[in-house]
Specification:
147 residues, alpha+beta, 5 strands
């Protein structure tokens, strides 16, 4: 068995098929709850649609198993959880020690760092959202198909 840290596995529904590409719909699952980007990449009750290149013989309505790179999950966790803290600390120490502001103002300026990190996270999400690599590894055979 391959290392579970190399990828995240998910199931998706094929909603559109075109030559060399399929559009899949990924429903929010338990894996979304552990992902740092769950609130950003997919709305609360929405499914994520993604266009994937494939040469598999698929039809609309087929279920497929996807692998999603864990590097994306690691980077998103860093952006969501670590970067805001780093920005707050940097803004605080810059205001306090470099610019010589009083403690109260340095704290307020540290919250500006939080705001700046939030804006940068938003911009990174908009820029890199379409570059998340999904790979279809297999078609899921539903037992109901044979009934």
């Amino acid at each position: 068995m391959e290392n579970d840290l190399e990828y995240q596995e998910d199931t998706a529904l094929v909603v559109e098929v075109k030559k060399g590409f399929v559009t899949v719909e990924i429903s929010r699952t338990g894996a979304c709850a552990s992902c740092g980007m769950s609130g950003i990449c997919v709305g609360k009750n929405q499914a994520l649609r993604h266009r994937i290149s494939t040469d598999m013989d698929l039809r609309s309505g087929d279920q497929v198993k996807l692998h999603i790179s864990s590097g994306v999950k690691l980077l998103s966790s860093f952006l969501i959880f670590v970067m805001p803290i780093i920005f707050m600390i940097l803004f605080y120490f810059s205001a306090k020690h470099i610019f010589g502001f009083r403690e109260e103002f340095a704290i307020i300026i540290s919250f500006t760092g939080l705001l700046v990190s939030g804006i940068l996270i938003y911009l990174a999400d908009k820029r890199f959202a379409g570059k998340i690599h999904f790979e279809i590894v297999e078609k899921v055979i539903n037992e109901d198909t044979f009934k």
